[in-house]
User: Fold this.
Amino acid sequence: MIKFENTGSEFTLRMHGAIGESGWTLDRFINELSNVSAPKLTIEIKSNGGDVFEAFAIFDELRKMATTKVVAKIVGTSASAATIIASAADTIEITENSRYLVHFAQTGVQGNKQDLLDRYEELVKIDESILAIYQKRTGRSREELSELMQKDKYLTAQEALDWGFVNKIIKDEKQNKVTNQITNTMTEEEILKLKEENEALKAQIAAMMEEVEALRAEKAAKEDEELEAEVQAHITAGKFTAEVAGFWKTALKTNKVEAHKAINAIRVEPKKLADVPATTTDPAITGVYTNKADAWEAFKTGKITNVKYAEIVKNLK
Assistant:
C-alpha cells in the first residue's frame, strides 16, 4: 500500500509502476488522496506508462485540484502514458539521470478491414488529445511534437528540459558540493581555461549529435523506401487497392507485426480467365510492352511487380 509522507504542509505520493488495472487507476489514485488536504502535493513518478485512458482520467482529476500546488518529480523514467499524468502538474522536476519518453498511441488489433479502420480513427483521436496536452505544456508547435513522437526515443533530462516537458533538473547535491569546493581553490585563469575546454567539448558533442541525426534521417529514408516497396507489392498481389495505401502505411509503421497479420488474413480471389476479354490489348494482361515509360507507369500503379518491370526493361534494351 502506498503511504503518504507528511512533512507539515506537503504530501508526497509515490506513483511507481504501470498505469492501468495492474497498477495505477483513477479509483486507486482517488482513494490514495481521499484523506489528503494540503496546499502542496508532490507526486514522485517512476513508470513506463500503460493505459492511456486511465492516464487521461488521472490527468483530469489533478487539474481539478485548483487550491493545491502539484509538483511532479520524475525519478528513473516517465514514459508514454506516465508523461500525460506528469503534464497535469504545475511544475515538473526530473532527476539528472532520468529519462522521458513521448510517442504516439499504440495498440494491437484483429479483425476485418473495417475493424482496422475503426481502430486507426480511434488512435488518431487519442494522438490529437495527447498532442493538445503536450502543446500546452511545452509551447511547441503540433508539427514539432508530432515529429518527436514519431521518433519514439527516450529524452535525457536535459533534452526534456530543452523541449519544455519539465521545468527543473534535480542535480546531484553531493557532486555539486565537491564541484564547489574544487572551484573555490582554482585561480581565475584555471577557471577560464576549464570553461573554454568545456565549450570545445560541447561543440564536439553537438557535431556528433548532427552526425547521429543524419544517420537517423538516412535510416528513416531507407525504411520509407522499404515500406513503399512493401505496400506496392501488396497492391500488386491484390491484398488491397492503391486508394487505401495510406492507411496501410500508417498501420505498418504503428505496429508492423499486427499489420502483417491483418494483411495475411486478407483473402485474394484469383482472377478468372473469363474475366479477361479475349481481345484485350492491356500490356499488364498481355505482358507486351513497347517502351519503358509504359512499363514504369504500370509498375507505379501496381499493375506489374518489380521483377516483371526489370524483365521488361531488360528486353527493351
Summary: The longest helix spans residues 188-236. Confidence is low (pLDDT under 50) at residues 1-6, 272-280. Residues 273-316 form one domain. Residues 102 and 306 are 38 Å apart (CA to CA).
